[in-house]
Design goal:
Layout lengths: L7 E9 L6 E10 L5 E9 L7 H6 L1 H4 L6 E3 L2 H15 L3 E5 L5 H12 L1 H4 L7 E3 H7 L8 H4 L10 H19 L3
Parallel strand pairs: 1-5, 3-4, 5-6
Antiparallel strand pairs: 1-2, 2-3
Helix pairs in contact: 3-4, 6-8
């Protein structure tokens, strides 16, 4: 059984320059599956000056820029390498989760693999659990506001760390609803 080998939930959220643009910020939270406590969180951003989307400039950059929860790095390739090293550390013992993983998180993982195809080709998330699909399986509206659903109205939407927290808490709530944990 897949779940018996997993001890953690690795919840990832990325912010991209529009839906199909390059990722400029990431947030990861890692949760113990038994205690449901967050054991680690990582936020990172790079090259915010290259973001072209006016919507992203107005709605995401003010939340990320200068936020002490985020590490600023010089280049997006460096940000992807930091992420990949974290992912490699946790992937075998974790369920990998993203909310509506396509196109943003799926595209980000693809780019991470392409950055070093020879060594990463077979190491992408398999599977990556999609939270939106879990909502459908629980007969819930997949567009239900996760911040309301988890009573996290104090957190910021489009902060990738906060988005990954809300995704993880939604996962646990739906998992319980489905009677699987």
């Amino acid at each position: 059984m897949y779940m018996k080998d997993k001890e953690f939930l690795f919840s990832v959220d990325v912010e991209t320059d529009n839906l199909y643009g390059e990722t400029f910020a990431i947030g990861v939270t890692i949760w113990d599956l038994k205690t449901r406590e967050m054991v680690s969180k990582v936020g990172c951003y790079a090259e915010l000056n290259k973001v072209r989307s006016e919507w992203c400039k107005n709605n995401i950059l003010p939340i990320i820029r200068g936020n002490i929860d985020f590490m600023k790095v010089g280049y997006r390739t460096q940000m992807r390498d930091i992420f990949w090293n974290l992912y490699e550390e946790w992937r075998r013992k974790s369920i990998i989760l993203a909310d509506f993983q396509y196109p943003c998180e799926a595209g980000f993982f693809r780019q991470c693999v392409l950055d070093d195809l020879k060594s990463r080709e077979w190491d992408g998330p398999y599977p990556m659990i999609d939270l939106g699909t879990m909502f459908i399986c629980a007969n819930l509206d997949p567009d239900l506001d996760r911040f309301v659903y988890t009573n996290n109205l104090h957190l910021d939407k489009h902060n990738p760390i906060h988005d990954s927290i809300v995704a993880a808490e939604s996962f646990f709530k739906i998992w319980d609803f489905l009677g699987r944990l």
